[in-house]
Amino acid sequence: MSALSDLASGDALPARTVTITRADLVRYAAASGDQNPIHWNERVALEVGLPGVIAHGMFTMALAARYVTDLAEDPTAVVSFSTRFTRPVVVPDDDTGATVEFGGKAGDTADDGSRTVTVTATHEGKGVLGKAVATVRPA
Question: Is the pTM of this model over 0.90?
């Protein structure tokens, strides 16, 4: 029985905090091919008007999807995931990094047994993903 299957529609998902460091950004850039310097170079990020080096939006989305797959206890359970990027996650050049807090609510179960999950992701108290919804197939 997965954590998601134990929840009724409207129940809160268990919270999770994830730390993102500059080293994570370097690894993600190498894996994704997104070498944009706003994700590793403070000077460039500031020159283009950002508050500092920012995490890749797709990396933040991937962390949210991992959060859901972990709750489903099956990495193949998420059949769709959609979101909007609403704010950047600024990642300082230190040993602490930046934290993103994930939460959300379990949604209704469809006739085929799949259910929707609404995910929240916040950094420094502000949402970084908007309208984040996953559809999860039954175990």
Answer: yes
Listed by start position, the domains of the chain span: 16-136
The tens digit of pLDDT for each residue in 68-101 reads: 999 999 989 999 999 999 999 999 999 899 999 9
Tell whether the torsion through CA atoms of 69, 130, 89 and 50 is positive or negative.
positive
Fold classified for 16-136:
Thiol Ester Dehydrase; Chain A (3.10.129)
CA 42-90-119 angle, to 5 degrees, is 155
Residue 62 contacts residue 129 (beta carbons within 8 Å): no
State how far the Cα of 136 lies from the Cα of 123, in Å rounded to an integer.
25
